[in-house]
Amino acid sequence: xxxxxxxxxxxxxxxxxxxxxxxxxxxxxxxxxxxxxxxxxxxxxxxxxxxxxxxxxxxxxxxxxxxxxxxxxxxxxxxxxxxxxxxxxxxxxxxxxxxxxxxxxxxxxxxxxxxxxxxxxxxxxxxxxxxxxxxxxxxxxxxxxxxxxxxxxxxxxxxxxxxxxxxxxxxxxxxxxxxxxxxxxxxxxxxxx
Length: 193
Hints:
Layout: H1 8-23, H2 39-44, E1 54-58, H3 61-71, H4 76-79, H5 82-97, E2 104-108, H6 109-114, H7 116-127, H8 165-168, H9 171-187
Parallel strand pairs: 1-2
Helix pairs in contact: 5-9
Protein backbone atom coordinates (compact mmCIF):
# COMPACT_ATOMS: atom_id res chain seq x y z
CA UNK A 1 0.00 0.00 0.00
CA UNK A 2 3.03 2.29 0.20
CA UNK A 3 2.77 3.00 -3.54
CA UNK A 4 -0.85 4.20 -3.35
CA UNK A 5 -1.59 7.77 -4.34
CA UNK A 6 -2.01 9.94 -1.24
CA UNK A 7 -5.70 10.73 -1.69
CA UNK A 8 -8.66 9.54 0.35
CA UNK A 9 -10.23 7.85 -2.66
CA UNK A 10 -7.06 5.97 -3.66
CA UNK A 11 -6.30 4.89 -0.09
CA UNK A 12 -9.85 3.63 0.50
CA UNK A 13 -9.87 1.77 -2.81
CA UNK A 14 -6.56 0.11 -1.95
CA UNK A 15 -7.80 -0.76 1.53
CA UNK A 16 -11.05 -2.28 0.20
CA UNK A 17 -9.11 -4.24 -2.44
CA UNK A 18 -6.79 -5.62 0.23
CA UNK A 19 -9.67 -6.59 2.53
CA UNK A 20 -11.43 -8.31 -0.38
CA UNK A 21 -8.25 -10.15 -1.35
CA UNK A 22 -7.64 -11.34 2.23
CA UNK A 23 -11.27 -12.51 2.52
CA UNK A 24 -11.19 -14.20 -0.88
CA UNK A 25 -13.97 -11.96 -2.15
CA UNK A 26 -14.58 -9.95 -5.32
CA UNK A 27 -15.05 -6.64 -3.50
CA UNK A 28 -15.26 -5.11 -0.04
CA UNK A 29 -16.57 -2.01 1.67
CA UNK A 30 -17.82 -0.80 5.00
CA UNK A 31 -21.17 0.10 6.50
CA UNK A 32 -20.77 2.12 9.67
CA UNK A 33 -23.62 4.58 10.16
CA UNK A 34 -21.15 6.88 11.88
CA UNK A 35 -19.62 7.70 8.47
CA UNK A 36 -22.49 10.09 7.88
CA UNK A 37 -21.08 12.24 10.69
CA UNK A 38 -17.96 12.72 8.60
CA UNK A 39 -19.81 13.61 5.40
CA UNK A 40 -18.26 17.08 5.18
CA UNK A 41 -14.75 15.67 5.53
CA UNK A 42 -15.41 12.89 3.01
CA UNK A 43 -16.82 15.39 0.53
CA UNK A 44 -14.00 17.90 1.12
CA UNK A 45 -11.45 15.18 0.41
CA UNK A 46 -12.96 14.24 -2.94
CA UNK A 47 -14.83 11.06 -2.15
CA UNK A 48 -17.90 12.28 -4.06
CA UNK A 49 -15.97 12.36 -7.33
CA UNK A 50 -14.24 9.02 -6.80
CA UNK A 51 -15.16 5.64 -8.31
CA UNK A 52 -16.31 4.38 -4.89
CA UNK A 53 -20.01 3.53 -4.78
CA UNK A 54 -22.12 4.82 -1.88
CA UNK A 55 -25.34 3.26 -0.66
CA UNK A 56 -27.11 5.89 1.45
CA UNK A 57 -29.77 4.43 3.74
CA UNK A 58 -32.01 6.90 5.57
CA UNK A 59 -34.40 5.99 8.39
CA UNK A 60 -37.04 8.27 9.90
CA UNK A 61 -35.26 10.42 12.48
CA UNK A 62 -37.95 9.68 15.06
CA UNK A 63 -37.29 5.94 14.87
CA UNK A 64 -33.52 6.47 14.86
CA UNK A 65 -33.77 8.65 17.94
CA UNK A 66 -35.90 6.13 19.81
CA UNK A 67 -33.56 3.32 18.83
CA UNK A 68 -30.57 5.31 20.11
CA UNK A 69 -32.42 6.09 23.33
CA UNK A 70 -32.94 2.34 23.88
CA UNK A 71 -29.24 1.54 23.67
CA UNK A 72 -27.90 4.79 25.18
CA UNK A 73 -30.51 6.03 27.68
CA UNK A 74 -27.87 7.98 29.58
CA UNK A 75 -27.20 10.10 26.46
CA UNK A 76 -30.79 11.35 26.13
CA UNK A 77 -29.88 15.03 26.74
CA UNK A 78 -27.34 14.84 23.89
CA UNK A 79 -29.87 13.09 21.68
CA UNK A 80 -32.05 16.21 21.87
CA UNK A 81 -29.81 17.84 19.23
CA UNK A 82 -29.58 14.69 17.12
CA UNK A 83 -32.44 15.58 14.70
CA UNK A 84 -30.53 18.65 13.46
CA UNK A 85 -27.37 16.62 12.88
CA UNK A 86 -29.39 13.84 11.17
CA UNK A 87 -31.04 16.34 8.82
CA UNK A 88 -27.92 18.28 7.93
CA UNK A 89 -25.76 15.22 7.31
CA UNK A 90 -28.30 13.32 5.21
CA UNK A 91 -29.27 16.36 3.15
CA UNK A 92 -25.62 17.25 2.56
CA UNK A 93 -24.75 13.75 1.40
CA UNK A 94 -27.69 13.57 -0.98
CA UNK A 95 -27.03 17.07 -2.34
CA UNK A 96 -23.34 16.37 -2.94
CA UNK A 97 -23.96 13.08 -4.72
CA UNK A 98 -26.40 14.69 -7.12
CA UNK A 99 -23.21 15.58 -9.04
CA UNK A 100 -22.24 11.88 -9.31
CA UNK A 101 -25.51 9.90 -9.43
CA UNK A 102 -23.93 6.81 -11.04
CA UNK A 103 -21.99 6.22 -7.80
CA UNK A 104 -24.88 6.87 -5.41
CA UNK A 105 -27.91 4.80 -4.40
CA UNK A 106 -30.51 6.22 -2.02
CA UNK A 107 -32.67 3.81 -0.03
CA UNK A 108 -35.20 4.41 2.69
CA UNK A 109 -34.82 2.02 5.58
CA UNK A 110 -38.57 1.56 5.75
CA UNK A 111 -38.63 0.30 2.15
CA UNK A 112 -35.77 -2.05 2.96
CA UNK A 113 -37.62 -3.74 5.82
CA UNK A 114 -40.95 -3.87 3.98
CA UNK A 115 -39.50 -5.29 0.76
CA UNK A 116 -36.07 -6.69 1.62
CA UNK A 117 -35.72 -8.84 -1.50
CA UNK A 118 -36.54 -5.94 -3.83
CA UNK A 119 -34.23 -3.51 -2.02
CA UNK A 120 -31.36 -5.98 -1.59
CA UNK A 121 -31.56 -6.69 -5.33
CA UNK A 122 -31.35 -2.94 -6.00
CA UNK A 123 -28.23 -2.77 -3.83
CA UNK A 124 -26.57 -5.83 -5.34
CA UNK A 125 -27.33 -4.63 -8.88
CA UNK A 126 -25.90 -1.22 -8.04
CA UNK A 127 -22.74 -2.76 -6.54
CA UNK A 128 -22.38 -5.32 -9.33
CA UNK A 129 -22.54 -8.36 -7.06
CA UNK A 130 -24.86 -11.37 -7.07
CA UNK A 131 -27.93 -11.40 -4.88
CA UNK A 132 -27.97 -14.32 -2.43
CA UNK A 133 -30.86 -15.40 -0.21
CA UNK A 134 -28.40 -15.69 2.70
CA UNK A 135 -28.20 -11.89 2.71
CA UNK A 136 -31.65 -11.93 4.30
CA UNK A 137 -30.75 -14.53 6.95
CA UNK A 138 -30.07 -12.94 10.33
CA UNK A 139 -28.22 -16.04 11.54
CA UNK A 140 -25.75 -15.72 8.67
CA UNK A 141 -24.63 -12.22 9.67
CA UNK A 142 -21.36 -11.54 11.42
CA UNK A 143 -21.03 -12.99 14.90
CA UNK A 144 -18.34 -10.43 15.68
CA UNK A 145 -20.83 -8.16 17.43
CA UNK A 146 -22.63 -10.80 19.47
CA UNK A 147 -23.13 -9.62 23.03
CA UNK A 148 -22.79 -5.95 22.10
CA UNK A 149 -26.05 -4.27 23.20
CA UNK A 150 -25.79 -1.73 20.36
CA UNK A 151 -25.95 -4.57 17.84
CA UNK A 152 -28.40 -6.84 19.61
CA UNK A 153 -30.73 -7.00 16.58
CA UNK A 154 -27.99 -7.83 14.07
CA UNK A 155 -28.55 -11.58 14.15
CA UNK A 156 -32.33 -11.34 14.12
CA UNK A 157 -34.56 -11.53 11.05
CA UNK A 158 -35.16 -8.20 9.31
CA UNK A 159 -37.54 -6.35 11.60
CA UNK A 160 -40.52 -4.38 10.38
CA UNK A 161 -40.83 -2.50 13.66
CA UNK A 162 -41.13 1.11 12.69
CA UNK A 163 -43.20 4.10 13.60
CA UNK A 164 -43.47 3.06 17.25
CA UNK A 165 -42.18 6.49 18.21
CA UNK A 166 -45.73 7.85 17.90
CA UNK A 167 -46.66 5.94 21.07
CA UNK A 168 -43.42 6.24 23.01
CA UNK A 169 -41.67 9.51 22.12
CA UNK A 170 -42.36 12.43 24.45
CA UNK A 171 -44.38 15.18 22.74
CA UNK A 172 -41.64 17.78 23.35
CA UNK A 173 -39.10 15.55 21.60
CA UNK A 174 -41.48 15.07 18.66
CA UNK A 175 -41.74 18.85 18.39
CA UNK A 176 -37.96 19.19 18.54
CA UNK A 177 -37.61 16.65 15.70
CA UNK A 178 -40.02 18.63 13.58
CA UNK A 179 -38.27 21.95 14.21
CA UNK A 180 -34.75 20.61 13.72
CA UNK A 181 -35.35 18.20 10.84
CA UNK A 182 -38.35 19.53 8.91
CA UNK A 183 -36.57 20.02 5.57
CA UNK A 184 -35.10 16.51 5.56
CA UNK A 185 -38.34 14.91 6.75
CA UNK A 186 -40.16 16.59 3.87
CA UNK A 187 -37.54 15.71 1.25
CA UNK A 188 -37.37 12.07 2.29
CA UNK A 189 -41.17 11.78 2.42
CA UNK A 190 -41.63 11.28 6.15
CA UNK A 191 -44.86 12.52 7.73
CA UNK A 192 -44.82 15.82 9.55
CA UNK A 193 -46.71 15.29 12.80
